[in-house]
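Q: How would the structure tokens look for this protein?
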Amino acid sequence: MKKLNPEKLTVEFSSGVTMTEPVIGRKYTLTHSDITADLFLIVGLQFAFEKVNAMRDEVLAEWKMADGFPFLYVYVYIDGEFGPAVTAVRDAVFRRELPLALEAIRYGDRKFFAVHSALDNAPIWIHFDSTNPLYDKFEYWGTPGDYK
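A: Here is the predicted structure in token form.
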């Protein structure tokens, strides 16, 4: 796993969120530059779809509740616009890069986690979205504390 270089991470807080609030409904849009390897994290009440490119290689995450307990729901779009032949490659790339993406979210929103420290123990559930049942998965990926 590549380690996060904090100097390569830019964090932006959209209208309606602060560095510490809200919890439920707090959404993360993580994009990157293939050229510079910079990461861009937008924290808001809505996903920053205007930052998403045609490759659809963003990571989307949001805080949700299930049975009274918070969890971080993460969504990645595996299929892409290039057809089923590329699905396996995209799946492998997302799986390789997701630990870095989760570390970027945890680090980029560290003041939020300092105030809501119990969320470091909340489960992370990742939806690998694909029309191919071999790749359409919903998996547990630890807790935000695992990515400090």
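The helical segments are 87-108, 110-115.

The first strand starts at residue 9 and ends at 13.

Upvote if useful.
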